[in-house]
Amino acid sequence: MAEGKGYGKCILFNEHFVVYGIPSIVSAISDATVAIAEKTDSGGIQLIDNRPATPGYKEEKKEHQEDSLRRILGAMDISMNANLRITLKGDLFAASGVGASAASCTAIARTLNQLFDMGLDDDRINEIAYEGEKGYHGTPSGVDNTASTYGGMIWFVKGEPNTFDLMKIPQPVEIVMGNTGTVANTKAAVAGVKERREKNPEEYDKIFSRARNIAYDARKALESSDLKEVGRLMNVNHQLLQKIEVSNGDLDALVETARKAGAFGAKMTGGGLGGYMVALTPGESLQEKVSKAIKKKGFSVLKTKIGV
Ligand code: PMV
C-alpha cells in the first residue's frame, strides 16, 4: 500500500491572464488531498473518491476524472489492465477554485510512484500531474499542478517551457476562502475569455497589460509584507476579472461582504463563474470576523494561510 499527497491552492493574482503568458502568483494552502494506492487480485482499476466535496461536484467531474486518470496512467506507463485500487481522501474540500483537481492528480501520481517504486522526482511528478489536469481543463496553464506539487508561494509564468520560482514571504498570512457552492466549468470559462478577447482585441490588450503590472507590484508588496498594498492590488485584480466576465453575482457579493467586514482586499480565485473567492485577513481575529460575515450570508468558508 502506498500514499501520496497534493496541496490545494489559492491563486492570488492573475488566474485566466496566466493562460496568455502573464505572470501569476499562487500559494499552496495547508489543506491537501491524499491518495492511497494498493494492488488488488482482480477488478481492474478502481477509483474510490472519499473526499469531502461541494454537493454535485463529484458527479459533475466524473467523466473528467476518468479521462484524467487514464492520462496519468498513460504518462506513467501503467497498463489500463492492471488491478489497482486508488482511494482519494484528505481534508481539502473538493470544489471549484481550490485546485482540487490538480491536488488529486499530484496525489495520485505520487502514490503510484511509491507503489511501483519508480523513484520519480518532483519535476516528473509535476509533469504527470499536468497530464492529468488536461482531463479536467483541456489546456491548463500548469499553475495549479505546480502549486500542488511544490507547495509554498509561487511566481508562475506559462511559456515554452513554463517557468516558476518559489517566492519568499516574511511570514504566513491568514486568508478566508468563501465558497459560492456552485460547481464551475473552468474549460468553459477559459473558452469564453478567448472568444471575447478575439472580438475585442484592443480592449483586452489594455486589461492584460494592467494585469501584468499588477503581478510585479504584488510580488514586491508580498515580499516586503506590505499587506495593505497586497489587498488593494487584489481588489484591482478582481475588477479586471470582472471586466473579462469571469466573475458572477455570488462572487461579487462575497467579495463585497469580505471587504465590508474589514478584509484588506478580496477577489474571486480560480476559474470563476462560481467556485471560491479569497479575502486577505491578516491575524486570527480579522480572519474570524470575515469568516463569520460570509457564513452569515449562508456560504461556507475555508480558513487557511498563504505562504506556509
Ligand atoms: O478553476 P481552477 O481553480 O482550477 O483555476 C483555473 C485557473 C485558470 O487560470 C482559469 C486556468 C488555468 O489553466 O490556469
General description of the model:
The chain has two domains: 166 residues, Ribosomal Protein S5, domain 2 (2-Layer Sandwich), CATH 3.30.230.10; 134 residues, Alpha-Beta Plaits (2-Layer Sandwich). Helix content is 45%, strand content 24%. The strands form two sheets. Strands 1, 2, 3, 4, 5 and 6 form a six-stranded mixed sheet that branches. A four-stranded antiparallel sheet has the order 8-9-7-10. A hairpin with a 5-residue loop joins strand 5 and strand 6. The longest helix has 23 residues. It starts with a strand and ends with a strand. The mean pLDDT is 95. The site of (3R)-3-hydroxy-3-methyl-5-(phosphonooxy)pentanoic acid has 17 residues, from helix 4 and helix 5.
Structural topology:
Layout: E1 2-13, E2 24-39, E3 45-49, H1 57-75, E4 84-90, H2 100-115, H3 122-137, H4 143-150, E5 153-157, E6 163-167, E7 173-179, H5 186-199, H6 201-223, H7 227-243, H8 249-260, E8 265-269, E9 276-280, H9 284-296, E10 300-306
Parallel strand pairs: 3-4
Antiparallel strand pairs: 1-2, 2-4, 2-5, 5-6, 7-9, 7-10, 8-9
Helix pairs in contact: 1-2, 1-3, 2-3, 2-4, 3-4, 5-6, 6-7, 8-9
The structure holds (3R)-3-hydroxy-3-methyl-5-(phosphonooxy)pentanoic acid (PMV).
(3R)-3-hydroxy-3-methyl-5-(phosphonooxy)pentanoic acid binds at residues 15-16, 18-19, 96-97, 99, 137, 140-141, 143-144, 186, 190, 270-271, 275.
